[in-house]
């Protein structure tokens, strides 16, 4: 049983340098960093035994392929330069034609040299990642793809805009940013990954419904804690928290889970096995947002309660079971 006792702590990450210096990172959650799974360590044995299925492992790998590191600079009140880091995932790639590519590289060229064919990337995230963002002054916002380790080749996409219903509201804390690129090979790679992910999601959902473990749930978070390389964390038994019912059998809700998250994890895609959504769901699913301190009550133990942190997703829409 969970009893919340602290204010939500959003998990964007602010650094003094670009990129962040790992030695400057003092994380309150450092004792749980041993639960981090780097992509080169991802294997069936890292999953809970009842969920050791090759399709689940492949799904996590494809979801990781679509996960991005979001970063931009901003100035503090005293004019000091800082960098904000978060996570997101590529949910859609749309081809644009007969207009000039708006990426920063093309904007430096004359009209004749600019690409006439480009791609718009829809990247769901959490609104707190962009609370320091100003589209008029932040001209360096970008999404970094394939940042799997310190030596991996990274593709960078300019972020042109950000949208959110409410930057400060608890019940409308999802957001979406839009990236642009004229790199056709990159767009093809991402499109193929989206198709693979949706196919695997359907296969795994059917597998799960045919198992005896349907009372158990697996939760997977993929992100860039502390603005560093991609990390996977695993949890179990997420709890759905209903916010309000919507017409046509839809529900606005968020999830609480025990997968480890840190500053920089806000906006990370959260995969919940058996979640009743189709594809990425309505309103772009439930990216990770914040943590809260809790008191865990356990009447079966002599000690009645203990303190811990629980992670929470943004709110999102899904079909009612």
Describe this structure in words.
- The chain has about 325 residues and is mainly β.
- Helix content is about 15%, strand content about 35%.
- The strands form three sheets. It has an eight-stranded antiparallel β-sheet. Strands 1, 2, 14, 15, 17, 18 and 19 form a seven-stranded antiparallel β-sheet that branches.
- The longest helix is centred in the middle third of the chain and has 26 residues, at about 185-210.
- InterPro entries: Peptidase_S1_PA, Peptidase_S1_PA_chymotrypsin.
- This is Peptidase S1 domain-containing protein.
Shape, principal axes of CA atoms: globular
Q: What value does the average pLDDT take? A: 83
The N- and C-terminal alpha carbons lie at a distance of 22 Å
Structural class: mainly beta
Low-confidence stretches: 1-6, 278-283, 295-307
**In total, how many beta strands?**
19
Beta-sheet strand percentage?
35-45%
Percent helix = 10-25%
Q: Tally the helices: what do you get?
A: 3
User: What's the alpha carbon Rg, rounded to whole Å?
Assistant: 20 Å
Question: What characterizes the major β-sheet?
Answer: 8 strands, antiparallel
Order of helices and strands: EEEEHEEEHEEEEHEEEEEEEE
Main β-sheet, spatial strand arrangement: 3-6-5-9-10-11-8-7
Organism: Biomphalaria pfeifferi
InterPro entries: Peptidase_S1_PA, Peptidase_S1_PA_chymotrypsin
Protein name: Peptidase S1 domain-containing protein
């Amino acid at each position: 049983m969970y009893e919340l006792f602290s204010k939500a702590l959003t998990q964007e990450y602010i650094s003094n340098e670009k990129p962040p210096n790992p030695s400057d990172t003092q994380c309150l959650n450092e004792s749980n960093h041993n639960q981090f799974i780097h992509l080169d360590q991802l294997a069936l044995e890292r999953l809970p035994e009842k969920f050791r299925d090759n399709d689940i492992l492949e799904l996590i790998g494809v979801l990781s392929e679509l996960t991005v590191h979001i970063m931009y600079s901003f100035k503090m009140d005293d004019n000091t330069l800082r960098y904000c880091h978060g996570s997101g995932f590529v949910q859609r790639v749309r081809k644009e034609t007969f207009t000039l590519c708006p990426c920063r590289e093309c904007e430096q060229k004359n009209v004749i040299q600019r690409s006439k064919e480009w791609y718009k990337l829809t990247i769901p995230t959490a609104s707190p990642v962009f609370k320091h963002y100003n589209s008029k002054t932040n001209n360096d916002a970008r999404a970094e793809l394939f940042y799997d380790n310190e030596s991996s080749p990274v593709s960078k996409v300019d972020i042109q805009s950000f949208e959110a219903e409410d930057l400060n509201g608890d019940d409308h804390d999802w957001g979406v940013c839009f990236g642009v690129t004229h790199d056709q090979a990159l767009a093809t790679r991402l499109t193929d990954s989206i198709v693979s992910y949706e196919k695997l999601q359907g296969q795994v959902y059917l597998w799960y419904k045919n198992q005896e473990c349907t009372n158990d749930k697996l939760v997977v978070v993929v992100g860039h804690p502390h603005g560093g390389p991609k990390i996977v964390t695993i949890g179990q038994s997420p709890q759905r928290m209903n916010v309000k019912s919507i017409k046509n059998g839809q529900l606005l809700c968020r999830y609480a889970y025990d997968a480890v998250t840190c500053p920089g994890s806000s906006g990370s895609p959260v995969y919940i096995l058996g979640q009743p959504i189709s594809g990425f769901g309505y309103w772009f699913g439930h990216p990770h947002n914040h943590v809260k301190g809790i008191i865990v009550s356990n009447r079966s133990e002599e000690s009645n309660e203990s303190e811990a942190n629980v992670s929470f997703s943004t709110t999102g829409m899904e079909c009612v079971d």
